[in-house]
Amino acid sequence: MNKKNLLRDFIIANIAGGLSGIFMLIGIFLQEFGVLPKFPCTFLYTTHMYCPGCGGTRALLWLFKGRVIKSICYNPAVFLGVILILYYEVTVLLTIISKKDKKFYTKSIVPVIIYVSIVLVFAVIRDILLVGFGIDMLG
């Protein structure tokens, strides 16, 4: 393991992710304040069901307000995504600053598979409640 390359990749990923996140947040806030138009979800418009991303903006806004449970109810992808990113950040930083060549992170895809599975199961359950029982979780 080459710590210089790991540090370089860590910095590049954080700059790219940080800039993307900033532009996304600016867009969200401009939409929330009516400066930019809100575009309807094409999936919802054509199927009358929610896509796995529906509720993500509201979930993010509630997470910023510190209302974690409400955020998770709108869409757990946001909160779980933050947890997954924090896990990556901490484990890579620990690897970079460790004095020995100890590796704290893993290149395993299992956490990502678990994340995607939870998000998809939530989306399916939310749509079953909507279509089958008329319960609109995003109402």
Per the principal axes of the C-alpha atoms, what is the gross shape?
globular
Tell me the strand percentage band.
under 5%
Would you identify the regions where 5 or more consecutive residues have pLDDT less than 50? none
Structural class computed from helices and strand pairing: mainly alpha
- Give the overall pLDDT as a whole number: 91
Number of separate strands: 0
Give the ordered list of helices and strands.
Answer: HHHHHH
Total count of helical runs of at least 4 residues: 6
- Please bin the fraction of helical residues: over 70%
Biggest sheet: strands, sense, closure?
A: none
The Rg value, from CA coordinates, equals: 18 Å
Please identify the oligomeric state: single chain
Total individual domains: 2
Straight-line distance between termini: 50 Å
Descriptive account of the structure:
The protein has helices spanning 3-32, 42-47, 56-64, 68-74, 76-97, 110-133. It has 139 residues and is mainly alpha-helical. It folds into two domains: 1-38; 50-139. It is globular and about 55 Å long.
Keywords for this entry:
139 residues; mainly alpha; 0% strand; globular
Could you give a quick summary of the protein structure above?
The protein is mainly alpha-helical. It has 6 helices and no strands.
